[in-house]
Amino acid sequence: MSPEEFRKWGYAMIDWLADYSARVETLPVLSKSAPGDLRKALPLTAPEHSEDFSQIFADIDRLIVPGITHWQSPNFFAYFPANTSGPSILGELLAAGLGVQGMLWATSPACTELETSMLDWLADLCALPNQFKSTGSGGGVLLDSASSATLCALLAAREKATQGQTNWSGLHQQNGNGAPQHTALSPKSKLVAYTSDQAHSSVLKAVRIAGIGETQLRIIPSDSQNRMDVSALNTAVNQDIQEGNQPFFCAATIGTTSSMAVDPIPEISVVCSQHSIWLHVDAAMAGSVALCPEYRHHFAGLDQAQSYTFNPHKWLLTNFDCNCFYVSDRQALISALSILPEYLRTPVSESGEVIDYRDWQIPLGRRFRALKLWFVLRSYGAEKLREYLRGHMQMAKEFAKRVDQSEQFIRVAQVDFSLVCFRHKAGNTFNAKLLAALNASGKLYLSHTQLNGFYTLRLSVGAAQSQMHHIETAWQTILEICQSLEQ
Ligand SMILES: Cc1ncc(COP(=O)(O)O)c(C=O)c1O
């Protein structure tokens, strides 16, 4: 593609995206595609000869849009949101155009240093404890997802607990390629991790991937408000110690996936610090709320955590993917993840003056994610971001009021943030039918979970374009569809 053609199609694509943003509200929220629809419409093999970009461009509307579930629709209330915004999209575009791969400081100093500054900016904006700032013993890194952050935290915790003698002996005796010289597996692991029955599935996944083993993860029950039961945690830890196991990692949550419950971090941290257990706090969705001072009490106890994560790609107007992962002791993380082959050595890295973020993550290569955050934080400013978050939380409270005032529905969890969990009194089968009918209507998109054995509907506010009138319409649609099912 010549620079002139690139310019032409680049302008056309931005026009298309601006129009999309303006019309997204009119599109059925949940894609109506049937399995295989797109596969059938695509040729079986890649083209042998070049195609004109005008044909490719036309296929976006013809082939792709029908298979899109419109996460940016103001009527998208499922799961948790995946925000985008103009500044963030432009940041993504610039990152793609620059084509930087920032594995080392030397492979693009701006990529590394902008990232360090953005993580420190966010730490200050969210009033995170100083231990997570790059100016102390810790620091932050941008990863692809909260799942990766939890895995990295687990690996760092294991490194610390075993002082580098993990499941793999000889890990630190590296040959010229940075590979271990011998990799004999140690006898059965005694390491034990803890999390609650409301934690995100990424904790279990991390334990599996790390080779800790599912049997070494204790699932601690939660209380009637879906918060980790600390006395059950304490009992489990003591029992493990008595049995000769080594408790090493606990993942707590601020804003659980099912109901946005907040685990009692201060009490959990007491148990963890008594037994030198690494405390990781996952605030994937709720973390953005820490920008608002009046919500910071939910984040109490974070100063006792060894790692913390949240996702600007959920609720801070920043495109997927953008996860912030903070550690209080960067050395533990780097020891767990750094392998240094000859071909990655640079004098500046060896001087110790710079950060090489490749040592803070699983893959080697990395995208220039900090650009979009920089654009978002500067374009909106903290004040507008706070307003935006508060607006969504107000809408959730308004929706909760409607549920509370209705005869047919029950609200089943506290609304501390932006999620309303509720169900129709008619029972699980009816609620499942109701959800299917709502989503099939194309007018809105909700998702579900199980709380205390009940099929529960989740209305999660957080799409960038959602306004109070969308919430009102969503409630009216729920009532109408309910009525049609009852007849
Ligand atoms: C509490 C919590 N943790 C982790 C995740 C996983 O996030 P990611 O997709 O960034 O891995 C989610 C996703 O919704 C979540 O709600």
Describe the overall structure.
The relative contact order is 0.15. It contains 15 helices and eleven strands. The protein is globular, with a radius of gyration of 24 Å. The chain is α/β, with parallel strands linked by helices and 487 residues long. The chain has a domain at 95-374: Aspartate Aminotransferase, domain 2 (3-Layer(aba) Sandwich). 41% of the residues lie in helices and 12% in strands. Strands 1-7-6-5-4-2-3 form a seven-stranded mixed beta sheet, with helices on both faces. The structure holds pyridoxal-5'-phosphate. Residues 80, 145-147, 200, 202, 253, 256-257, 282, 284-285, 311, 323 line the site of pyridoxal-5'-phosphate. Pyridoxal-5'-phosphate binds at residues 80, 145-147, 200, 202, 253, 256-257, 282, 284-285, 311, 323.
Key terms:
four-stranded antiparallel beta sheet, single chain, seven-stranded mixed beta sheet, binds pyridoxal-5'-phosphate, 487 residues, 11 strands, Aspartate Aminotransferase, domain 2, alpha/beta, 41% helix, globular
